[in-house]
Amino acid sequence: MIKNPETKYRPFASVDLPDRTWPSKRITQPPRWLSTDLRDGNQSLIDPMDGQKKRRFFDLLVKAGFKEIEVAFPSASQTDFDFVRSLIEQKAIPDDVIIQVLTQSREDLIKRSFESLRGAKQAIVHLYNATSPVFRRVVFGMEKADVIKLAVSGAKTILAESRKQPETDWSFEYSPETFTGTELDFAVEVCEAVLDVWQPTPDHPAILNLPATVEMSTPNTYADQIEWFCRRLSRRDSVIVSVHPHNDRGTGVAAAELAVMAGADRVEGCLFGNGERTGNVDLVTLALNLYTQGIDPKLDFSDMREVVQTVEHCNQIEVHPRHPYAGELVFTAFSGSHQDAIKKGFAAQEQRNDGIWEVPYLPIDPADVGCSYEAVIRVNSQSGKGGVAWILEQDKGLQLPRRLQIEFSRVVQGIADKTSRELSAGDIWTAFRDTYCLEGPQPFELLDYSSSATRRDSHEHRFTGRIAYGGKEQSVAGKGNGLISSVLDALKAGWGIELDVMDYHEHALTKGARSQAAAYVECRAANGRTIFGVGIDGDIATASVKAVLSAANGTTRAN
Ligand SMILES: CC(=O)SCCNC(=O)CCNC(=O)[C@H](O)C(C)(C)COP(=O)(O)OP(=O)(O)OC[C@H]1O[C@@H](n2cnc3c(N)ncnc32)[C@H](O)[C@@H]1OP(=O)(O)O
Ligand SMILES: CC(C)C(=O)C(=O)O
Q1: Within 6 Å (CB) of ligand 2, which residues are found?
Q2: ipTM, two decimals
Q3: Which family does the UniProt entry place this protein in (predicted)?
Q4: Are 350 and 416 members of one domain?
Q5: Which of 28, 262, 147, 369 is closest to 245 using CA atoms?
Q6: Range(s) of the domain holding residue 342
Q7: What atom of ligand 1 comes closest to residue 40's alpha carbon?
């Protein structure tokens, strides 16, 4: 990079529109969407799609609800030409979907495009030529008048060709390519000249598409250009104003949104922002941005995984794990405070039960795009108690009391620090099971027991059990004012273990085996140490007994 970029780059000129209205507008309905994945997206791929991939992508777009799909540049390649033919001949285009093809303003290319569309019920023919000063000067060697002539001759050829195929319901689109780099009054002049040829009406409007062929300004400037253009256009009611933002500055989505506020009726783009260089505007993000404002985008991404997989297959480009709404990690929190807030958010949401989505750090319900809540919280060394507790709850239905969460998260933290990797739900369960002696051979194991009140009208409980300690079976008995205290009494009598119960929780498991219950005891040992015990069983009383034995097992391990 150079130290004095002002000697090499010029700032983008702003638009003189002091009475601009778009900043206070709100988007209240979705624009018309056009997917150009099969054209602009396709022309940017290392290996353009073959017919099969194009067909798979087309079917995906139809399923997602796209009603306008730019399917090809049919005069560019036999593959593209044949693809358009196959769609028509195989009757693959639903009646409510209209296909679009792109052509330069050259007679032979336009004729070939019409040939590809023979027999289509309806179609949009999209004509373009670049209009900006640098293209006039450098690429075409043309004056303004020549540029208008080129656009008009293309528009005339299109009109003439369409009349030769009256069985098709034709619509026409014109793009002054490089619109954003074009003098605004000249852009309007070229477009008016094209409209003069096509003579659109409110019932049969033409589409004027205003591309940010290369994104060169902040999005507010694009919005100014769109509002300026819409105000100056003579036949606004006979025109669908379309925008086609690219993403060179990384603000394609913002540019599209502001352009819609500024009067655009239609947006052209690609799924996940594929397209030339940094891509076309991302239609998935745009649609879901609307959705999160309570506006039905009229596009359905309920099965986002399938959409991602298909697009990755067809484009041979991976969707970034941080891609809005679609990436593998976008609903995942690793960090403790985020996990804590999300967990509390879900609990509050469940309690309110008003249907309104309000979960911290999650702008959308992952379930709405087909994602499970399992991936919402993942645990590594950055995680806290809330995350660990969430995973045990989601995976095993365990609702750990707060102080147990704190203790166990330290165990998990230690493992994560030691292994320097993410811990799976399986890793966490293994650690929980081992820490609280839930499975496998343990120092204390319950073999059998019975318990009863000593007298019908009494609160005194008697516990009689067979417990193995270190593999050696022993019969023990104890008394107390409840089951737990009678078990503690038996432990004291049998092995001299002294534990006081400070806290007790129990609940039915919400996941997995539905008839299971979990019990948690927080005990204080004679030396002042706090020891937690956990018991899980089909019978809640037995779960409590097991929890006490789990705590007893805790006394046998080093702190
Ligand atoms: C911004 C966009 O995405 S625009 C769409 C771009 N997409 C593509 O180009 C993909 C498909 N294109 C192709 O396969 C080829 O470019 C074709 C078949 C269309 C044309 O191929 P060729 O005839 O070999 O021409 P080439 O690709 O070199 O195009 C450049 C010529 O077209 C002219 N041209 C460029 N755009 C246009 C246009 N919109 N209308 C008329 N002429 C144009 C150029 O001035 C240049 O003319 P010159 O040879 O007299 O200097
Ligand atoms: C042909 C036009 C619409 C285009 O793709 C662009 O300018 O980016």
Answers
A1: 40, 102, 128, 175, 177, 209, 211, 213, 244, 246
A2: 0.97
A3: Belongs to the alpha-IPM synthase/homocitrate synthase family. LeuA type 2 subfamily.
A4: yes
A5: 262
A6: 336-435
A7: 3
